[in-house]
Design a protein that fits this description.
Elements lengths: L1 H38 L2 E4 L7 E3 L9 E4 L2 E4 L15 E8 L2 E8 L5 E8 L6 H4 L2 E5 L4 H5 L32 E7 L4 E5 L2 E6 L4 H9 L14 E5 L6 E10 L1
Antiparallel strand pairs: 1-13, 2-5, 3-4, 4-13, 5-12, 6-9, 6-13, 7-8, 7-12, 9-10, 10-11
Length: 251
C-alpha cells in the first residue's frame, strides 16, 4: 500500500511538473507573440529624431518643423484662412506604403487646421490634389475665428471632400488637447478613427468613390486618389501643429 501511495504521489508530481512547464512555455510563447506583434509597428516619429522626414518636393526638413518636449512641432505663425500661404508640407520619405494601419497623436491651437495625407507622389501639384486626406481641424472655434462656414467634409476626421464622419460617433476635443487618430487602408475598405471611435468607412476606387470624385471638389483633379502607394505626409495650413507617436503597420 505504501509503495502504491508513493507511486501515485510521484506520478502526480511528474504530471504537475509537466503542467507547470507547459504553462511556462505557453506564457513564453504569448510574450514572444505579443512582442512580435509590437515589432510590426514602424515608428515614423518616436519623439527623438526626425530622420526620414523632409519637405514635400524638397531635400531638407523646413526649419519650422522641430522637436519640442518629445513632439514633432510645426512652429509657425497662425494665419486665418484668408491670409493662408502654406508651402512647408512634410513627408516621411524613407519609405512608401500601400496598405497600412497608421496611428498618431496630435493637437492644434484654436482655429487650427492641418491634415494627414497618404499615397503621396511628388510633382508639380499640391498635396490635396492627388492624396487622400484625414482632416485635422478645430471644429469648435474655426468658424468663429475665420468668420466662415464649414462643410461637414471639412471637419476633423473627414476623408477631406469625399466622406464625412458618422453623426454621433465623433468625440470633439477642445483646441490644445491631444487627440488619437487612426487610418486603416486596404483596397477592400478604408477606416477613419478618432479618439477610439470609428468615424467612417468606404471602399476606395469603387463606383460610389468615383461618383463622389467626379461630382465634388476633385472633379477637375484627375490624379486625385489614383496612386495606390506613396509617402505619408502632414500639411502646412499656416497653423501650429504638434504630433507624437506616429507609427505605421503594413497590411
Amino acid at each position: 500500500m505504501k509503495k502504491f501511495a508513493l507511486v501515485v504521489s510521484f506520478s502526480i508530481l511528474i504530471i504537475s511538473c509537466k503542467t507547470e512547464v507547459k504553462k511556462s512555455e505557453e506564457a513564453k510563447e504569448t510574450i514572444l507573440t505579443e512582442t512580435a506583434k509590437a515589432d510590426e509597428w514602424l515608428y515614423l516619429f518616436d519623439g527623438t529624431s526626425t530622420e526620414g522626414w523632409r519637405s514635400y518636393n524638397g531635400d531638407d526638413l523646413p526649419p519650422q518643423w522641430v522637436i519640442e518636449d518629445g513632439a514633432l512641432t510645426f512652429d509657425t505663425e497662425k494665419r486665418t484662412e484668408a491670409n493662408r500661404k502654406g508651402g512647408k508640407d512634410i513627408i516621411y520619405a524613407a519609405q512608401e506604403f500601400d496598405n497600412f494601419e497608421l496611428a498618431w497623436e496630435w493637437k492644434i491651437p484654436e482655429g487650427g487646421n492641418s491634415g494627414m495625407l497618404y499615397h503621396i507622389k511628388e510633382g508639380d501639384w499640391g498635396l490635396p490634389e492627388i492624396s487622400p486626406e484625414y482632416q485635422m481641424l478645430d471644429d469648435l472655434k474655426w468658424e468663429e475665428i475665420n468668420n466662415a462656414k464649414l462643410e461637414e467634409w471639412q471637419k476633423t476626421g473627414a476623408d477631406y471632400a469625399m466622406h464625412v464622419p458618422e453623426e454621433g460617433q465623433k468625440i470633439v476635443k477642445p483646441a490644445g488637447e491631444w487627440n488619437t487618430s487612426r487610418v486603416i487602408f486596404t483596397p477592400e475598405k478604408v477606416e477613419h478613427w478618432l479618439n477610439g471611435k470609428k468615424l467612417l468607412s468606404f471602399v476606395p476606387w469603387s463606383e460610389d468613390w468615383e461618383v463622389r470624385k467626379s461630382k465634388g471638389k476633385w472633379k477637375d483633379s484627375p490624379k486625385y486618389g489614383t496612386f495606390k502607394t506613396g509617402f505619408i505626409g502632414f500639411q502646412d495650413h499656416d497653423s501650429p501643429l504638434w504630433l507624437k507617436n506616429i507609427k505605421i503597420k503594413k497590411l
